[in-house]
Write a structure and sequence with these properties.
The protein is α/β, with parallel strands linked by helices. Helix content is 39%, strand content 24%. The chain has three domains: 197 residues, P-loop containing nucleotide triphosphate hydrolases (Rossmann fold, 3-Layer(aba) Sandwich); 154 residues, P-loop containing nucleotide triphosphate hydrolases (Rossmann fold), CATH 3.40.50; 68 residues, no CATH class. Helix 7 runs parallel beside helix 8.
């Protein structure tokens, strides 16, 4: 019988908030075996992340932990800070969701890798530490590893930064890797590469992986077993194929039902082809100067249009130019050539007053609602701010407008006095949507608005966007790397590669009969919630 490398018995975690004890995990049991990938899945607040953080003693001071977390015979719940520090990074490592926050921006990649080795492998010489750092970057397949040691995190793409995080986690050959949403914000092709790297390294090192994710496609691709959590309890534990083929818990069934899948049926669009486009981009070129003074063309001659009531998706990898196009429409990126016409006004040549008047009618929903909302303002103040600033509405009239917007996004009006940290991720995104539509926009720009949300919350937010668009009839530029979400929500798809459009057309045509090789590559890289299909894809990829 296999001896587990980690055994959790009766784990309970409570947080003390305002003098009250709030349970987050309610006495769970699970084991992690050597060489196994165990996925913890569930909605926000289910307890999956706090359970993983408890293993390394990384919970805040207001957390109370009881039960057992057994590693090499020792109960980590009772371990002191010195004992935990000796384990962190050397025997149990963590890969965090956001490498831009986890990596120190003021130190080079090489410095940060070597610091890990200095701390946990002091017997190594300076030259050996340097060679090991290069070896680690080569293991995670980062191009030019020797050169990349001198790079700062801001000089890396999201996928490259995540590879550095994986390299740091593997620096001391740990027995256990805890991966907390390691691919959430990555494009589908980069996500596939990261998963392939993790799979190969896991096979080479035999490390056990505790994977925390809400992406069921990732679970299908890499997990051996799955634990489904809800409200601090384990609903179901089973091998990955059994979870997808024959889930037993009703909650697991509802979770899988909420997963967006390619192949959405045909639907009518409310776009009016007889009227002029709300947004018209013609020959847009955006250029930047990099740190070395070279001119980099981020957008190369893009032309597209969006009519009222229409939702157009921009898809492509990081660096394809999709977010830059959205920033250009907001006046936040330098336009080198071309026109951007919004409601008949060319914002590249219009006066400041004309541009200001147009911008009042543009709503924006960002990927990260936590960063987009001011933590010092209540959600009522955040939603009401644009109404007060642009329409000079105050007092009872402003209160009524805010309450109507909260009701429109299915949030209780009494929550107006709450602060962003008191809401879940999905609830914060609803607040962000309410704020974006506060001035009845003619154009909504949504930049990855659901990528960081759990699947069930994502489904409700997508439905909310659909309903609000039907009601307000705005044009929507939807920027996303999730092709299944695009299929469920959008009318037309524009595929970008290296700043240029390679394919565009009606949603079903582009996603079911792609003409360009790059579009086919994106579709092939998108994970599907089917372990057998993911295994078949890997075999085909390895054969080619």
């Amino acid at each position: 019988m296999t001896t587990p490398v980690l055994a959790v018995h009766g784990l309970a975690i409570d947080f003390t908030v305002g003098g009250q004890s709030i349970p987050a995990v309610r006495g769970i049991d699970f084991e992690l075996n050597a060489g196994e990938v165990l996925a913890l899945v569930g909605e926000s607040g289910s307890g999956k992340s706090v359970s993983a953080l408890a293993v390394l003693g990384l919970l805040p001071r207001n957390a109370t932990v009881s039960g057992e977390i057994l590693y090499n015979g020792a109960n980590l719940v009772d371990a002191n800070e010195k004992a935990l520090s000796a384990i962190r990074g050397s025997q149990i490592s963590m890969i965090f969701q956001d490498p831009s926050n986890a990596l120190d921006p003021v130190f080079t990649v090489g410095y940060q890798l070597i610091e890990v080795l200095k701390r946990h492998r002091p017997q190594l010489t300076r030259g050996e530490r340097h060679d090991r750092a290069v070896e680690l970057l080569r293991m995670v397949e980062l191009p030019d590893p020797e050169d990349r040691l001198g790079y700062y995190p801001l000089q890396l793409s999201g996928g490259q930064a995540q590879r550095v995080m994986i390299a740091m986690a593997l620096a001391c050959d740990p027995q256990i890797l805890i991966a907390d949403e390691p691919t959430t914000a990555l494009d589908v092709t980069v996500q596939r590469e990261i998963l392939n790297v993790m799979r190969r390294l896991q096979h080479q090192t035999s490390a056990a992986i505790l994977l925390i994710t809400h992406d069921m496609g990732v679970v299908a691709d890499i997990a051996d077993r799955v634990i489904v959590m809800r409200a601090g309890l384990i609903e179901e534990t089973a091998p990955v194929q059994d979870i997808f083929d024959a889930p037993k818990a009703e909650y697991t069934k509802s979770l899988l039902a909420a997963v967006p899948r390619l192949g959405a049926p045909a639907r009518d669009t409310s776009a009016d082809s007889t009227k002029a486009p709300v947004l018209e981009i013609d020959g847009l070129v955006v250029e930047y100067r990099n740190r070395r003074g070279r001119v980099v063309r981020a957008v190369d001659g893009i032309s597209l249009h969006i009519r009222a009531g229409e939702m157009v998706a921009l898809v492509g990898e990081s660096g394809s130019g999709k977010s830059t196009i959205g920033k250009s429409a907001l006046g936040l990126a330098p336009v080198s050539q071309g026109r951007i016409v919004i409601d008949g006004v060319d914002i590249t040549t219009a006066s400041r007053s004309e541009v200001r008047s147009v911008k009042k009618r543009i709503g924006v929903v960002f990927q990260n609602p936590t960063a987009a909302l001011d933590p010092r303002r209540t959600i009522g103040q955040s939603i009401g701010e644009p109404i007060h600033v642009h329409e000079r509405v105050t007092g009872e009239a402003l209160k009524q407008r805010v309450e109507a917007l909260l009701a429109a996004v299915d949030l209780p009006v009494v929550w107006s006095g709450r602060y962003p940290h008191e809401l879940s991720g999905g609830q914060r995104q609803r607040v962000a949507i309410a704020r974006a539509v506060a001035l009845d926009p003619m154009l909504l720009i949504a930049d990855e608005p659901t990528s960081a949300l759990d699947v069930s919350i994502q489904a409700t937010v997508l439905e909310l966007l659909r309903e609000i668009q039907k009601k307000l009839h705005f044009a929507c530029l939807f920027i996303s790397h999730d092709l299944a979400v695009v299929d469920e929500l959008c009318d037309r798809v524009v595929v970008l590669h290296q700043g240029a459009i390679v394919e565009e057309g009606e949603r079903r045509t582009v996603l079911t009969s792609p003409q360009h090789a790059y579009t086919r590559k994106l579709l092939a890289a998108a994970p599907v919630p089917d372990p057998a299909e993911q295994a078949r894809r890997r075999e085909v990829s390895q054969a080619s």
